[in-house]
Design goal:
By secondary structure, the protein is an alpha/beta fold. About 25% of the residues lie in helices and about 30% in strands. The strands form two sheets. Strands 6-5-4-3-2-1-14 form a seven-stranded mixed beta sheet. A seven-stranded mixed beta sheet has the order 7-8-9-10-11-12-13. Helix 8 (about 230-240) crosses helix 9. The termini are close together.
Length: about 290
């Protein structure tokens, strides 16, 4: 058995040439069976899935953390490419799991937005029916709550603090190999600590507050709802997380020194475990 965590995108709403939009792929292999779970789908997600050795047709489920566009814009591509590549038409509907709220009507409208394109493609290729999506909504959880399970792989959702965006959640993936926690977009908060208690890997969004405070005043509003690298380090050390993976990097690193600055910030917060400042397709494995 093995569980692999691959960062499909480390970027933000501001595009850069080397960082896709936010996303995390968790793959569990056991007894010849593979379970692929995707958490968020930012721009260029499909290309990164292929780069990770997966693809839209391999996904068992997609999980959304919140309704910010940079976490959703790649979902159309995931659904449409899954259908275009499914020449045998034997794939089940794409299951998309999200907190009840704006994400659900967004998912429900995926096929309708592309109705004209799908009609032409279906007629020309003599295929019956277009792609289908299965939105699965869950109530905003008071405490981390299981929202999906297949065999010995379970996914729990828990609150995070990304106000004024609501609802916003993080996820906890439990497999026989260990526990992976994904913060989604959030402040450093007690809710993340509860969600990630005992995790072997914690994937945390990361912002260098010291740099953003130097930005023009009209850009500093993002300090309201993202995770400060210094506080991430303090929290991860207090929790005893052995492996911390930083993603959704703000400001985006452009050189090795920039990446090291993220790690240094976390160390200055007191973290003594292993820290990985992710690039797209950075991968870690359990156990």
């Amino acid at each position: 058995m093995s569980t692999t965590v691959t960062i499909t995108g480390t970027g933000t709403p501001i595009p850069t040439p080397d960082r896709a939009g936010p996303g995390v792929l968790v793959t569990h292999r056991s007894d010849g069976r593979k379970t692929d779970l995707l958490f968020d789908a930012g721009r260029s997600t499909v290309m990164r899935l292929v780069g990770a050795g997966s693809g839209p047709g391999d996904l068992n489920a997609v999980f959304l953390t919140h309704h910010h566009s940079d976490h959703l814009v790649g979902l159309d591509d995931v659904l449409l490419t899954r259908w275009v590549m499914d020449r045998e038409q034997n794939l089940p509907p794409l299951q998309v799991v999200a907190p009840d709220g704006p994400c659900i009507p967004f998912v429900e409208g995926l096929c309708q937005r592309w109705a004209d394109d799908l009609e032409v493609r279906s007629a020309h290729s003599r295929r019956h029916g277009g792609p289908s999506v299965q939105p699965t909504a869950f109530a905003y959880p008071e405490v981390p709550t299981e929202v999906w399970r297949s065999g010995d792989v379970g996914v729990l959702a828990g609150q995070v603090r990304h106000e004024p965006v609501h609802p916003a959640v993080g996820y906890r993936i439990e497999t026989p190999d260990g526990v992976v926690a994904i913060s989604g977009d959030t402040l450093v908060c007690d809710e993340v600590a509860v969600l990630a208690a005992g995790a072997d890997v914690l994937v945390y969004e990361a912002m260098r507050f010291s740099e953003i405070r130097k930005a023009p005043e009209h850009r500093r509003f993002i300090l309201d709802y993202h995770a400060d690298t210094f506080l991430i380090g303090a929290q991860a050390e207090e929790m005893g997380v052995p492996l911390l993976v930083l993603t959704h990097l703000i400001p985006p690193p452009t050189c090795d020194a920039d990446e090291q600055a993220f790690a240094d910030d976390v160390r200055s917060g007191g973290y003594t475990g292993e820290v990985v400042v992710a690039s797209d397709l950075t991968s870690v494995s359990l156990p």
